[in-house]
Amino acid sequence: MDLADHHRLDALYRDPYPRCARARAAPGLTFVPELDAWLVARDADVREVLRRPEDFSSANALRPDVRPGPAALAELARGLGGFRTVLSTDGEAHRAYRAPLNSGLSFARVNAVLPYAAARAEALVDAFAPRGQAELMGEYAQQLPGDVIGRLLGLTEEDARTAVHGSRRAEELLFRPLPEEEQVAAARDVVTLQHLLDNYIRERRAHPRDDLVSTMTAALVPGTGDLTREQRAEAVSQFQNLLIAGHLTTTALIGSAVHHLLRDRAQWELLCAEPERVPAAVEECARFDAPIQGFRRLTTRTVTLAGTELPAGATVFVAYGSANRDPARHADPDSFDIARTAPAKHLGFGRGVHGCPGAHLGRAQLHITLELFTRRFPHLRLGRAADQQVVVRPTLIHRSPQALHLSFPAEQPGGHQSR
Predict the structure, then answer these.
(1) β-pairing verdict for 303-305 and 308-310
(2) How far apart, in Å, are the Cα atoms of 49 and each of 46, 58, 182?
(3) pLDDT (tens digit, 9 = 90+) per residue, 185-210?
(4) Measured between alpha carbons, how far is 399 from 390 in angstroms, rounded to an integer?
(5) Is the confidence at residue 416, as pLDDT, over 70?
(6) Keywords for this entry (predicted)?
(7) For the chain, how big is the Rg over CA atoms in Å?
């Protein structure tokens, strides 16, 4: 893909909703050259694809936008990874990878880590509250989910930071055009992450603890003997995928949620006045601007969808974000409204066999964030001029503001805000 193609793709990624609206209104499916895929944009059609994994394979779900150059590939060869993951498998392989995730991210295990998440959220806020301003993404939204997934996995704080950094670099390497030297640097960070995970897997296999690395390792590579390099690479791939999904999705959800609540001042003031609306606000945030806008699927046979016949091997892009804006499913779908009456179920966390196993964890961290910010910063505002555009990251996975500057009355010692 050349630079001009990337510019066109970035424009679509930064604001996919107009193209999705046209696709919903058009008969059949619309082919989108920038995605090299048929766009599945209507709620009913998206749900049909998700109900038929035998016809719409996930094998290409994480097809990268960028192929790293030879130097970066040589660096990646020093690591352990490259195996299919729960996101890119079907049938029995998918079930084998999914089962330990379901167990490891159970309601009970997630609920057990929430007191830590709440305390960590308070500590992050304490660090910037006296200044009266903050950049949300860097100072809070990227840090809280990374700390929480690190605690769940059982990583030390230092190793969790290394792992979170490496997983962000993996996303950059495969989805952003980078100069060769930056590709190589990103690849080195990914390899560092892979070896870190490999060390944890082997140590926990020999000496299990009450953490997610131990639970998943026992399920993925049962037994006690030495692991082959292939087994190690397969296990590392699963943990690398979990890390990326476990914090980048929640980072995006938090950033977009705070942005949309503050962009519509009445919504923020309503939430501050009636904090019991936080659960509804969480769902509306996930519906209105889904952090995962969709994934690709590959037809396994000739199929007809929305009146369009697709041959075997055709690529479709299953657009959760578009389905969440479908007026056939949601009343006034382009309006952000935390007070919706009888809101319809959305697809912000996917659905079916590939529905997000960490949805409860993501929801819980946004819930903690909204309760905390409405309590401590009722006068919170966007920190730049009202007419300045908040720039959205050019991606359909982990969609969020690139930066979100906030301002508020500075807190005095003791947690009181100045007026």
Answers:
(1) antiparallel
(2) 5, 11, 38
(3) 999 999 999 999 999 999 999 999 99
(4) 13
(5) no
(6) Heme, Iron, Metal-binding, Monooxygenase, Oxidoreductase
(7) 21
How does pLDDT run across 89-106, given as a tens digit for each residue? 999 999 999 998 888 889
Q: How far apart are CA 111 and CA 29, in angstroms?
A: 41
Best CA proximity match to 323, nearest among 333, 314, 332, 308: 333
Sign of CA dihedral 201, 207, 211, 212: positive
Q: How many CA atoms lie within 13 A of 247 on its CB side?
A: 29
Q: How far is CA 263 from its chain centroid?
A: 22
| 326 burial via Cβ count (<10 Å: 0-12, 13-18, 19+) | buried
- The answer, yes or no, to whether residue 302 has pLDDT greater than 60, is yes
Q: What domains are there in the chain, each with its CATH number? A: 3-411 (1.10.630.10)
What is the arithmetic mean of pLDDT over 141-157?
95
Pair 127, 139: CB distance under 8 Å:
yes
Of 358, 156, 373, 135, nearest to 245 by C-alpha is 358
The Cα 17–Cα 316 span in angstroms is: 17
How remote is the C-alpha of 279 from its chain's centroid?
Answer: 19
Q: What is the pLDDT of residue 176?
A: 87
Q: Which residue has the tokens 């964030």?
A: 369
pLDDT for res 223: 85
